[in-house]
Amino acid sequence: MPEFFTHQDFYKYHGLGNDYLVIEPARFAESLTPAMARRICDRHRGVGSDGILYGPTPGAAPPAVRIFNPDGSESAKSGNGLRIFARHLHEHGHLHAQGHAQGSSFAMATSAGVVQARLLDGEGRVIAVSMGQVRFDSTVIPMTGAPREVVQEALAVGDRHLTITAATIGNPHCVIPVADPTPAMAQELGPLVENHPAFPERTNVQFMAVRDRHAIRIEIWERGAGYTLASGSSSCAAAAAACRLGLCESPVTVHMPGGELTITLDADYHAVMEGPVAAVHAGNFSDELLGELGLHRQG
Would the pTM count as exceeding 0.70? Predict the structure, then answer.
């Protein structure tokens, strides 16, 4: 069996440059904590990643995952993360262990609910995930103020006046149409919007330009992670916002610095995301790091 598939402390994958570590809870006697997640994700003092997929939860059916951001907070849903988790489940036999055939379609559980994944090739290198419904309702995003649909709404950020469309797909998003989104724009304005008082649970931020009726380009600032090369949930939110604004129609190809995702939306903005997953590395933490983390391998 290839080395990547042997039982290890962590497995590293990326989706369009958005890299995650899969850590299986059954590997260690202790549960992962926010402090552990911060240290492991640290690119200088840890393994380094954009987050940790902590699962599958032992005994859970369908297979369940918790998603940790680099700052130790948890995300309810991650498109790239869920594609990665789907590939990991497929490759490591967890679908069979949970009573699922090693087939093309299966369910996964997140804190935002159950999603369906579908393998688009035999190796799990291209995966589609039904991400759920994109909603623009301020009460579920959530946003402060009167209940409303947050579409083309003014938002003051410092001395800037932005026009936003906000949405949720299990996690909050703020889509900002601009003429030319740049990394510098995302890095300057992203943290200000993420932490704006209008978003009591903070928000992910997408700066979006429309290319044509079926394509957009975005730069992304992720809640709890910062500037990011690609994001599946951000792609779903931005594509839905573009369609809601009448700028695009489904399917929408979302261009990001890390690559492209295809988002298909129905009339009620239920989103299906399609894109690649690549395996990078699998390995064990050093005894020194395990000691600092306070982790002990089972067995």
Answer: yes
The pLDDT mean for the chain works out to: 94
* Rounded Cα distance, 207 and 254, in Å: 12
Asked if residues 205 and 186 have their Cβ atoms less than 8 Å apart, the reply is yes
Cβ–Cβ under 8 Å, residues 2 and 271: no
Query: For residue range 38-57, what is the model confidence (pLDDT) as tens digits?
Result: 999 999 999 999 999 999 99
Q: pLDDT band at 95, cuts 50/70/90? A: confident
With contact defined as beta carbons under 8 Å apart, do 202 and 171 qualify? no
Instruction: For domain 133-274, say whether CATH 3.10.350.10 is its number.
Output: no
Q: How many of the other CB atoms lie within 10 Å of CB of 67?
A: 25
CATH architecture of 3-125+278-293: Roll (3.10)
What distance in Å separates the CA atoms of residue 207 and residue 74, rounded to the nearest whole number? 23
Round to whole Å and give the CA distance between 265 and 259.
20
pLDDT in the model for residue 96: 64
Give the tens place of pLDDT for each residue, 82-94: 999 999 999 998 8
| Contact call for residues 248 and 146 (beta carbons, < 8 A) | no
| The total number of residues written for the chain in this structure | 299
Reduced to 3 states, what is the DSSP secondary structure of residue 238? helix
| Residue with tokens 């002990």, as numbered in its chain | 296
**Exposure on the CB side of residue 76, measured as CA atoms within 13 A:** 19
With CA atoms as reference, report the closest residue to 229 among 192, 262, 195, 257.
257
